[in-house]
Fold this protein.
Amino acid sequence: THTHTHTVNFKGEERELLKNGRGAEIFSGSNFDVQKSHDCEQSANMSCGQNVETNSHHSPLISHSSGITLIALIITIVIMLILAGITINLTLGENGIFQKAKLAKQEYELATIKEKMELELSALELEHNTSGGTVTPIGLRENVIEESTKGTLVYSSDLTRILGVETKLGVILIDAESESELQGGIRIGDTVNYIPDSAIGFDPDYGEEAGTYTGYVTDTQIITQEELVWKILDISDGKVTLTSEYPTTQDLYLGGWAGICNGVYILNDISKDLYSKSGYAIARSIKYEDVQATTFLTDEETVGGICTSQDTTYKNYPSIFAQQKNTIVDGIRGTVLEKSEQTELILKANAMATFTNKIEIEFCTPITEDTEKRDDNSEEPQIEDLLMKNEKYWIATRSIDSSSRSESNMRYSPIVMRSHGGKKKTSPTGIAMFASYPINHMGYAGAGNAKIKPIVEINENVEFNYNNETLKWDLSI
């Protein structure tokens, strides 16, 4: 093994070159390091390494090779980005492949809905003509179209024609010649210029001692008329049903046996007195059936079940339930009233009754924001927005708290609409989410409180006399 030391001149500096036994020359400089390897035989006649003159411009130790330049790389990247943008636009843009596929799917689904609707309308008309009818009633056509499309029906201003139906997938023309004709039509959610007669405050105890009919003995209540925004809740068989966009700001308190028995009557009377229009329309309170009409629930499906009590200790119940058709007291079913009806007030002293053996009461199925509405397939659903506000309001229907089935705690009450636990639904005030205090069959004297939501059902273009003038309702805003 031989080790040689040579002196190499590199940029004017003297460096030591160490030649190791394998013939590797290692250059070490302040500017860069280079290692050059040789295949050297260990021979006396061969010399490895020699004096080398070099400079910073030409070095025999560095080999030069051709490659891509920076400018060429940038140009390549730009071209690739342009191509990528074109590809993305063709795929994901407004007129891209995905969008066209989505539109094609929507058109197919809309055509399927339309075909189903037309077949059912044809079958309806055939059945009606076979039975001797000449023109299929608009009410029957409404039901078929709503069931088939679950969209928002658009009517002519005189309510004699169904112009078309608006869905999330598009518009289906029915009696209209073009889509532009639908713009002047009327539909659920439209605001109308209904103005009730002016009215003074209403006393729900009718001038009697506080609590005589309401069961609320704390103070005398006076409910006053408020300026409400009116919207179309339903259009059916030539009639328009209006409701206030929001319920009243005032609360009505109902408590004890009297409040349970008289709630339906009082709610309807307040609405009639404060929000009717003489010779034109009579207002009432919203009831369970109004909410049901906005859904696809059948009458059978609105019966949630039966609550039964055979309690041997607590046998009291609100006396009006004995008249109610959905109640059986000691084996005798009521025959006079539906759950949303009441024809006369009941004094507080007569509001409580006692059963001997057993009482059975059908309770209403709760209608929630998850219940399928008739306009759920609409581009802008309105029904849920009109009904499911974050406001607690009374519904003029008697029912029972189906969650309180213990015989000593069967709760009776008018129903309330209210949001609870992130869900909006109808239910008796006996359920904690609907009442400040429960009203139960033991006669607890607490009071449930909620706002009032009036309903106005009216015929389109009905003429009436008002202050010696002949007026006509105008649907325009």
In short: Confidence is low (pLDDT under 50) at residues 1-63, 430-446. Residues 369 and 384 are 7 Å apart (CA to CA). The chain is about 20% helix and 25% strand.
